[in-house]
Write a structure and sequence with these properties.
This protein has 320 residues and is mainly α. The protein has one domain. 81% of the residues lie in helices and 0% in strands. It contains 14 helices and no strands. It is a multi-pass membrane protein. Belongs to the EamA transporter family.
Length: 320
């Protein structure tokens, strides 16, 4: 159990530093290139544990398994994390961190419609508070060029929630480490294909004439220098690779509900790191939004813990 809580602390620190780290290196890389590189590195870090997981479960991956990983990789890496990286480009790191932490709102909705999971009163209360928090942070009456960053963050959160709900259907079969690793691998392969397509001359010319120039002639190794390597190592090895490793280890050693503390602490910790490292000013509406999200997260966490405890007690009674 002690190892589980240490993993939670490490995962929280790494995930909370994600937006700050990406903001620091975003000027040195194309956003699509950075997404490709960090998830490829993350997959390599997870690969030894994933191969061990396959061996322990006596699973031999087949064509249909890779179809599942390709779908999950496309939703998570290609779609969600591309929106996420664009959000980092257009908005403050603190705003992206706070709003992206609201993805459980969309998980609840997708799980209700796709998995027929129950929605409790506490869930609705948490949902309403989170929506108020998002509106407060967006400050719709005073939105400026931050609009694109907020829009991209919400799209990233929605698609990441979709990835989580679809992935839940398969996680029992593969295990968290295996599923995450091969999702990252397949997503990176799909990103590589997009990069190659972006280099075709007529495709690059068409995209250059649009508002999405970052998708034109996407580099692979450009920007990797002695000065940029430490930042790339941090976002690839530590934030993406070890961050997910510690989070998945926390789930194994504690429970999914307890491990979710990572995402409940992140909205409060990430803006503090952005303030200290990036000198990002935290406005009053953002502070109010943070407080509301922490309240919403606390309601969800406490209710999930109680529900898990009751279910565990019920199972024990049935066994007796």
């Amino acid at each position: 159990m002690k190892q589980g809580y240490v993993s939670i602390i490490l995962a929280t620190i790494l995930f909370s530093s994600m937006e700050v780290a990406l903001k620091l290196v975003s000027g040195q890389f194309n956003p699509i290139q950075l997404t490709f590189l960090r998830f490829l590195i993350g997959a390599v870090i997870l690969l030894p544990a994933a191969l061990k997981g396959l061996k322990d479960r006596e699973i031999s991956l087949k064509k249909d398994d890779f179809k599942v990983f390709a779908l999950l990789g496309f939703i998570c890496v290609v779609v969600s994390m591309t929106f996420y990286q664009l959000a980092i480009l257009y908005s403050k790191a603190s705003i992206v961190a706070i709003l992206f932490s609201c993805n459980p709102i969309f998980v609840i909705l997708f799980a209700y419609f796709m998995l027929s999971e129950k929605i409790y009163k506490t869930t609705i209360a948490s949902l309403v508070i989170s929506i108020i928090a998002i509106i407060t942070i967006m400050n719709p009456f005073h939105m400026t060029n931050n609009m694109y960053g907020i829009l991209f963050t919400i799209l990233a959160a929605v698609t990441f929630a979709l990835y989580g709900v679809i992935g839940k259907k398969y996680s029992k079969k593969y295990g968290g480490v295996v599923q995450t690793c091969f999702c990252f691998l397949m997503g990176s392969a799909e990103m590589f294909l997009i990069i190659l397509i972006s280099k075709i001359s007529f495709v690059a010319q068409i995209i250059q004439q649009s508002k999405f120039k970052v998708f034109s002639d996407i580099p692979i190794l450009k920007g990797i220098t002695l000065s940029s390597i430490p930042g790339l190592i941090f976002v690839g090895v530590f934030v993406t690779g070890l961050g997910y490793t510690f989070y998945l280890l926390a789930m194994e050693k504690t429970s999914a509900a307890t491990a979710s503390l990572v995402f409940y602490i992140k909205p409060a910790l990430a803006p503090i790191l952005a303030l200290i490292i990036l000198r990002e000013v935290i406005n009053l509406n953002t502070i109010v939004g943070i407080v509301l999200i922490v309240i919403s997260s606390s309601i969800t966490f406490i209710s999930n813990k109680k529900r898990t405890g009751l279910e565990t007690a019920k199972v024990k009674e049935e066994l007796v």
